[in-house]
Sequence to fold (233 residues):
Amino acid sequence: GENVEQHPSTLSVQEGDSAVIKCTYSDSASNYFPWYKQELGKRPQLIIDIRSNVGEKKDQRIAVTLNKTAKHFSLHITETQPEDSAVYFCAASLDTGTASKLTFGTGTRLQVTL
Amino acid sequence: GAGVSQSPRYKVAKRGQDVALRCDPISGHVSLFWYQQALGQGPEFLTYFQNEAQLDKSGLPSDRFFAERPEGSVSTLKIQRTQQEDSAVYLCASSLGAGLAGGSYNEQFFGPGTRLTVL
Fold:
């Protein structure tokens, strides 16, 4: 089955700096890669996703890149703000035409300091 | 509109007790997933329903775990004879469609979870 690895496990940046979180996946058939943000005690919330027919996607301060050959995808947050502090999870799944389970990474705890 | 809701939010059980966790998906959502999230870990897949049909239960850790969605809306995850290793947050997620490739139908919306503590 699919295996997703995520690095780093913790990341501390100063407000205004950029943050990058990296994930690798094992199943070359996976074609849908969402990123979720989870604040302490709250539900995971989708912040951005990318499909395998696209190499990059951007939404304001957040961008995701995908390298299918290397089976690698990354989350980029620019101009970080204190409210970006949370745990971020990457995930991978295979969209075959029926809804598919997500395989999550182990999470990155992002701390944005003033 | 209302999001995914789960109840109870917190559950404390003595080892050996049975528990039932409820999930109310977003109205009209076809797909429903259960995940288990251990402390400090990412969610791990348990089982998946498309309407009332349980299409994938490969993630259920043992036969003590049972899930149902009899009318294709509300779902219940039941754990029999709970053990300490069952302590975790149980997350439910729903998505609109059955996986139309290329669209947003597959976005999974998560509930707040039920935190289960087995003593």
